[in-house]
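ARCHIVE CARD
CATEGORY: sequence design from structure
SOURCE FIELD: tokenized fold
FIELD CONTENT:
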């Protein structure tokens, strides 16, 4: 019986580890999907802002909004880079 328990315990530990790996992968994938969605949304906002430039009466407000969108794009790009760096780090051979 002790051999059976030892074998089952090893299998259970393996299943638990695989589940944790899958949860980490899912979290990274989710973060990447969210960042990609945000990138698409920001590109749309930027395009909309530029297309509405001819209707804009307050140039200072236009520049402020443009700056905010560009800052968010930079942050989003850094997030995507960081997600890929984390994924690469976790997939390195030990």
């Amino acid at each position: 019986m002790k051999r059976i328990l030892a074998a089952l315990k090893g299998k259970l530990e393996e299943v638990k580890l695989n589940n944790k790996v899958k949860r980490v992968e899912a979290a990274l994938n989710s973060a990447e999907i969210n960042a990609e969605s945000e990138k698409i949304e920001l590109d749309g906002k930027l395009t909309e802002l530029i297309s509405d430039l001819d209707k804009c009466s307050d140039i200072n407000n236009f520049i402020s909004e443009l700056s905010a969108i560009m800052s968010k794009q930079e942050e989003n790009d850094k997030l995507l880079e960081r997600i890929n760096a984390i994924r690469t780090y976790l997939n390195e051979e030990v």
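CARD ANNOTATION: The two ends are 35 Å apart (CA to CA). DSSP finds two helices and no strands in the chain.
SHELF: design records, drawer C
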